[in-house]
């Protein structure tokens, strides 16, 4: 009698079998049937067709129906009888059978191991995690219920020796299509609960699933040759010996050593070896402090003596303050030993803010790929090294992961390596994350995750090799979680027993990985004691030689630590190099304006676009330009000159206030648009303008990394509102304003931060100008270049050369044009932060004559008051930004043009002392007021007050304040209060007596 041993399980068939073979089912009716798992009539017909002829259905259905039926002689044998019951009736019949009818559900058990085996894998060298899993390898003992659940309920000893078909969901049998249950469980234990925990079953691509299964399930897949294992030993020996050498020579110094996870070094070397064989030529590494020194020397091939110099109390040769040794970067070419390939390796400078460097790495790689036409990411690759606690705890990891598959941000996959020492500073993992693993964030991009035992270097190397192959084949992220421990405390001066006493008792008695691996290779006959001594002594001799060389060096060279190639552009910089005019030829102005005002062919724009284009044409006929035209003239002219321009932000294609409209979308056809600035000139450079994901921290980091690669590229990040910069303050503080000082990294990144008290509430008003000014490193003790030159252009050039970044609050389209072009035309690079206006983007007074863009014109740090009667002026208002237009109108209404002069300071930092002093010399016996729309404790007041005093040779008390009172919030949320505050500010400004 035919027995149906289990009810219909639609989830398994639909999602794991049917879709595997969906390509065979071409007609839509068949596909639609699959969407309805309760369509018992279809299943019944298919089943009866199979009963008559098993070959009438696809192989997966054949396997399934075999596993669902049995006769009296075989639990999973061929069906020899038929039944007149419908499939639905038979399922009902099953539900009434006694438990004695149950047999092991082998398919479900295999799937359980594949999906959940990682939860109990024996990946912890200390045996603290999942201690019971150590008893599973090499046995047929069943995994705990958290993995297998009830799938083998009712299993008997007799079942263990029965053979079961393996089906299409596993390849643990290799060539064998069925195995005894005992052997099945043993092989599953070895693959899924041993020294590796695999996470991949959530990946929707069946080809990827099959590929990964073949890499890990096929017997013998993990085996490495003797030469390969010897190479792994060599890299491991260098990693372990280097740490012990540092401990011996610099025992009282913080080193944030790699001890306990030294297998990381052969892992990354393996990634490089495999990737280089597959065509990768350049690698960019981002890493926090843990293991950084070891990585610099044994992976990046940093000359060891340069690192030892960092331990010596030496002065620095070059511009900047430098940084501690475990924050520094490098850039080098190195020859890989096994493949003989020469590769480029960069390690980005990174402060202790853990994962902050992650988006910079992918931005840096993306820039290199674009520059070399590497559209698929075949030649350049990012490697991001995480700490376990930081990977789970730092939000930028999530933001960076989400860039993986976005068209204008993807790098073709990132290899993420986790130095997992099972502790975060002093916090136990049980109290530092809610997820099962520190790597769970990677699931958002369906990245496979390999958790691997750090004391099993063979398996670590194999997983690294597979990770590199996967990245190159499928162009997606992949995670290598190397689970080890931290032999010392958070740093070498720390006492870990205070917080983790039991863990560190176990660590003290635990041999290091080199000892473990050496014994294993000796036992296997791969190496012997003589080889170990010879190679170790040779490496130690090299360490001694480099250490001796370091003692002869008296000055540390900053250029030795640059993380980008030190080109002639940077090497020959001097404050005496003049900044050329940023204006352009009138014919170019006309051509760009015409193109920017004309509807592209082959597209149907929104009606508002037509109105914008008409407005542009009208302005052009009047020889005027608005803000959008100023931007377009700057960008397009740079494109013509061969400079790649990239503009990114959450609303950058059209501009947050719809003033820009560089991308015109077709109103009738999806995914159809035109870039207004592309193809204006033949052979112009690439212009990328893209709406970014809703991420500031990650995206700004990406754009900063992008801008660091090529000094000839203009990279712009635009916040939707200025206060959005609050979310990426780590990048601003740790990398942007201080990058040159700490690491000698010059970048020309531009930040556009919409700013202005427009009555839109606290969080959409202020870009926190005061914060950026506080981070400026100009000296207030004396006027720069005083007495050294009478040429104001030379003085400003020297100020720009010496400052850490440039802060502007602009009011005219001409100045945004010149400011953007100056970023590229300057003979050096500085970040530029612009308080971008909002209402001025369309303000009828915020326009510039086209003559202000022509050859010979340049950026204006200040705009003088055009008064022709300076002797009648009783009060001089200094201001910056939108407030100028507010008071200009009122001054005119009250006929005070001959009484009050208004001077706009467009570039606040570096402060234009000499230009202000020269302009102020026109007036005599006047009152001086600094006017701002921001509150008194915010904005530029506290920065400019002392500088105005120095420039004007006036006591501080004579520099009065005009504006809103102090406030904790950047603006009011009440329109009534906003209007009252603005009126009070205007009255203060217009008051003469």
Automatic annotation (TrEMBL):
Superkingdom as given in the UniProt entry: Eukaryota
Cofactor(s) demanded: Mg(2+); thiamine diphosphate
SUPFAM superfamilies tied to this protein: Thiamin diphosphate-binding fold (THDP-binding) (SSF52518)
Cellular component GO terms held in the UniProt record: mitochondrion; oxoglutarate dehydrogenase complex
UniProt xrefs under CDD domains: TPP_E1_OGDC_like
Localization: Mitochondrion
InterPro entries hit by this protein: 2-oxogl_dehyd_N (IPR032106), 2oxoglutarate_DH_E1 (IPR011603), DH_E1 (IPR001017), KGD_C_sf (IPR042179), ODO-1/KGD_C (IPR031717), THDP-binding (IPR029061), Transketolase-like_Pyr-bd (IPR005475)
Primary subcellular site in the record, as a coarse category: mitochondrion
E.C. designation(s): 1.2.4.2
Listed GO MF terms: metal ion binding; oxoglutarate dehydrogenase (succinyl-transferring) activity; thiamine pyrophosphate binding
BP term (GO), one: glycolytic process
Annotated Transketolase-like pyrimidine-binding domain residues: 625-843
Keywords: Glycolysis, Magnesium, Metal-binding, Mitochondrion, Oxidoreductase, Thiamine pyrophosphate, Transit peptide
Enzyme class: oxidoreductase
Keyword Signal: no
Protein family membership: Belongs to the alpha-ketoglutarate dehydrogenase family.
Role summary: The 2-oxoglutarate dehydrogenase complex catalyzes the overall conversion of 2-oxoglutarate to succinyl-CoA and CO(2). It contains multiple copies of three enzymatic components: 2-oxoglutarate dehydrogenase (E1), dihydrolipoamide succinyltransferase (E2) and lipoamide dehydrogenase (E3).
PANTHER family: 2-OXOADIPATE DEHYDROGENASE COMPLEX COMPONENT E1, 2-OXOGLUTARATE DEHYDROGENASE
Name under which the protein is recorded: 2-oxoglutarate dehydrogenase, mitochondrial
Species name: Aphidius gifuensis (Parasitoid wasp)
């Amino acid at each position: 009698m035919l027995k149906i041993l289990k009810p219909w399980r639609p989830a398994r068939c639909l999602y794991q079998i049917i879709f595997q073979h969906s390509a065979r089912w071409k007609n839509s009716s068949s596909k639609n049937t699959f969407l309805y798992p309760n369509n018992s009539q279809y299943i019944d017909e298919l089943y009866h067709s199979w009963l008559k002829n098993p070959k009438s259905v696809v192989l997966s259905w054949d396997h399934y129906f075999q596993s669902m039926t049995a006769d009296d002689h075989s639990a999973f044998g061929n069906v020899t009888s038929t039944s007149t019951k419908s499939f639905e009736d038979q399922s009902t019949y099953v539900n009434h059978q006694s438990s004695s009818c149950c047999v092991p559900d082998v398919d479900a058990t295999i799937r359980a191991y594949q999906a959940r085996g990682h939860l109990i894998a024996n990946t912890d060298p200390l045996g603290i995690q999942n201690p019971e899993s150590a008893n599973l390898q090499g046995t047929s003992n069943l995994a705990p219920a958290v993995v297998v659940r009830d799938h083998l309920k009712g299993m008997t000893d007799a079942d263990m020796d029965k053979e079961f078909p393996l089906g299409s969901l596993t390849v643990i049998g290799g060539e064998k299509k069925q195995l005894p249950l005992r052997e099945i469980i043993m092989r599953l234990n070895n693959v899924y609960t041993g020294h590796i925990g695999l996470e991949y079953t959530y990946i929707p691509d069946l080809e990827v699933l099959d590929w990964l299964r073949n890499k890990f399930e096929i017997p013998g897949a993990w085996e490495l040759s003797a030469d390969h294992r010897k190479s792994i030993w060599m890299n491991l020996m260098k990693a372990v010996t280097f740490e012990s050498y540092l401990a011996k020579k610099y025992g009282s110094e913080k080193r944030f050593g790699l001890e306990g996870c030294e297998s990381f070094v052969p892992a990354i070397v393996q990634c490089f070896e495999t990737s280089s064989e597959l065509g990768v030529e350049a690698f960019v590494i981002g890493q926090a402090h843990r293991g950084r020194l070891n990585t610099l020397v044994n992976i990046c091939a940093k000359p060891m003596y340069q690192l030892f110099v960092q331990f010596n109390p030496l002065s620095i040769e070059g511009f900047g303050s430098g940084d501690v040794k475990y924050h520094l970067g490098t850039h080098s070419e190195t020859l890989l030993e096994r493949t003989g390939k020469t590769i480029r390796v960069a390690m980005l400078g990174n402060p202790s803010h853990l994962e902050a460097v992650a988006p910079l790495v992918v931005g840096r790689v993306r820039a290199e790929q674009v520059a070399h036409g590497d559209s698929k990411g075949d030649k350049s690759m990012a490697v991001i090294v995480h700490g376990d606690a930081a990977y789970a705890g730092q939000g930028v990891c999530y933001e960076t992961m989400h860039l993986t598959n976005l068209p204008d941000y993807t790098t073709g996959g990132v290899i993420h390596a986790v130095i997992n020492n099972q502790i975060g500073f002093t916090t136990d993992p049980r109290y530092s994350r809610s997820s099962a693993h520190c790597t769970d964030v990677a699931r958002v991009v369906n990245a496979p995750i390999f958790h691997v035992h750090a004391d099993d270097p063979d398996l670590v190397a194999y997983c690294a090799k597979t990770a590199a192959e996967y990245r190159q084949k499928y162009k997606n992220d992949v995670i290598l979680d190397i689970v080890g421990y931290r032999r010392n405390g958070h740093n070498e001066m720390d006492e870990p027993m205070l917080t983790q006493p039991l863990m560190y008792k176990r660590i003290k008695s635990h041999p290091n990985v080199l000892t473990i691996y050496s014994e294993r290779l000796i036992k296997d006959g791969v190496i012997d004691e003589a080889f170990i001594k010879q190679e170790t002594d040779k490496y130690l001799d090299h360490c001694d030689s480099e250490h001796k060389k370091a003692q002869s060096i008296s000055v540390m060279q900053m250029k030795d630590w640059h993380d980008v190639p030190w080109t002639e552009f940077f090497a020959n910089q001097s404050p005496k190099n003049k900044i050329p005019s940023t204006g352009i030829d009138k014919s170019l102005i006309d051509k760009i304006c015409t193109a920017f005002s004309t509807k592209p062919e082959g597209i149907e724009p929104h009606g508002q676009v037509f109105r914008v284009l008409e407005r542009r044409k009208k302005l052009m006929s009047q020889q005027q330009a608005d803000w959008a035209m100023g931007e377009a003239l700057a960008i397009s002219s740079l494109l013509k000159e061969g400079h790649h321009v990239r503009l990114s932000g959450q609303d950058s294609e059209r501009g947050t206030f719809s003033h820009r409209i560089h991308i015109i979308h077709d109103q009738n056809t999806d995914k159809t648009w035109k870039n207004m600035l592309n193809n204006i000139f033949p052979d112009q450079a690439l212009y990328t303008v893209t709406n970014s994901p809703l991420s500031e921290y990650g995206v700004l980091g990406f754009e900063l990394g992008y801008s660091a690669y090529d000094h000839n590229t203009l990279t712009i990040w635009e916040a939707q509102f200025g206060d959005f910069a609050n979310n990426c303050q780590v990048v601003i503080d740790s990398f942007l304003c201080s990058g040159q000082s700490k690491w000698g990294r010059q970048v020309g990144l531009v930040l556009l931060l919409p700013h202005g008290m427009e009555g839109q509430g606290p969080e959409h008003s202020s870009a926190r100008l005061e914060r950026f000014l506080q981070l400026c490193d100009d000296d207030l003790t004396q006027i720069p270049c005083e007495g050294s030159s009478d040429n104001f252009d030379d003085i400003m050039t020297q100020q720009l050369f010496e400052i850490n970044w440039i802060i502007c609050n602009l009011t005219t389209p001409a100045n945004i044009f010149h400011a953007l072009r100056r970023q590229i035309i300057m003979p050096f690079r500085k970040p530029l932060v612009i308080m971008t206006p909002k209402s001025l983007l369309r303000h009828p007074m915020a326009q510039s004559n086209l003559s202000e863009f022509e050859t010979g014109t340049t950026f204006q740090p200040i705009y003088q008051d055009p008064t022709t009667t300076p002797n009648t002026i009783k009060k001089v208002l200094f201001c910056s930004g939108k407030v100028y237009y507010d008071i200009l109108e009122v001054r005119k209404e009250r006929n005070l043009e001959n009484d009050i002069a208004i001077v706009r300071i467009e570039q606040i930092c570096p402060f234009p002392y000499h230009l202000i002093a020269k302009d102020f010399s026109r007036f005599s016996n006047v009152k001086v007021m600094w006017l701002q729309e921001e509150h008194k404790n915010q904005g530029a007041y506290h920065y400019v007050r002392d500088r105005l005093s120095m420039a004007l040779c006036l006591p501080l008390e004579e520099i009065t304040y005009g504006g809103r009172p102090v406030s904790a919030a950047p603006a009011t949320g009440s329109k009534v209060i906003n209007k009252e505050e603005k009126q009070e500010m205007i009255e203060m400004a217009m008051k003469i007596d």
